[in-house]
Amino acid sequence: MNEALPNELAAATEVVLQLRWSDQDALGHVNNARIVTLMEEARIRWTRQDGKVGRFEFGTVVASLQIDYKRPLHYQPEMLIRMGISRVGNKSFTVRGIGYQDGQPVFDSTTVMVPLAADGVSSRALSEQERSWLESSLIPAAGARSLN
């Protein structure tokens, strides 16, 4: 499932996800709403994969989500999502996720995430540690370059 990443995506992280029987619709495609859930699972695994603490202590919330569906995602045992950061702001950052199946892109998404303050409601500025981690995962923004 792992293919060589183009040079401009060298910082992208690959997350392999197992598809569930319940993800599919009557046509054997993965339901579009389930793709959002798969993206969420990949984001959570990615942000926690190194086990480091001290970033996003009070969590993050989705401020905006955009998905461009490229072709149907068929029910199979697994799929691949390549993800990284396409923008780092003061109080938000954008995660870009590209879903692949059989080496072909099936969706291209951007998710704007906002870190929460200690009250669990207010937004806050990114810490230097968070900013550094996010910047180490920079990849091109959607539409900036072809990923295939």
Write up what this structure looks like.
This protein is of the alpha+beta class and 148 residues long. The chain is 17% helix and 32% strand. The protein contains two helices and five strands, in the order E-H-E-E-E-E-H. The chain has helices at residues 32-48, 128-135, and strands at residues 13-18, 60-69, 78-88, 93-101, 104-115. The chain has a five-stranded antiparallel beta sheet with strand order 1-3-4-5-2. Strand 3 and strand 4 form a beta hairpin. The protein is elongated. It starts with 12 loop residues before the first strand and ends in a 13-residue tail after the last helix. Mean pLDDT is 86; it is low at 1-5.
Q: Summed up, what is this model?
A:
The protein has 148 residues and is α+β, with helices and mostly antiparallel strands. The chain has 2 helices and 5 strands, in the order E-H-E-E-E-E-H. Residues 1-5 have low confidence and may be disordered.
Pick out its properties.
148 residues; alpha+beta; 2 helices; elongated
Describe how the helices and strands are arranged.
Blueprint: E1 13-18, H1 32-48, E2 60-69, E3 78-88, E4 93-101, E5 104-115, H2 128-135
Antiparallel strand pairs: 1-3, 2-5, 3-4, 4-5
The separation of the N and C termini measures 15 Å
Structural class, by secondary structure, is alpha+beta
User: How many beta-strand segments?
Assistant: 5
In the sheet with the most strands, the strands line up as: 1-3-4-5-2
N-to-C order of helices and strands: EHEEEEH
Question: If you average the pLDDT, what whole number results?
Answer: 86
**Low-confidence parts:** 1-5
- Return Rg in Å: 16 Å
Major sheet size, sense and barrel closure: 5 strands, antiparallel
In helices, the fraction of residues equals 10-25%
Instruction: Give the number of helices.
Output: 2
Shape type: elongated
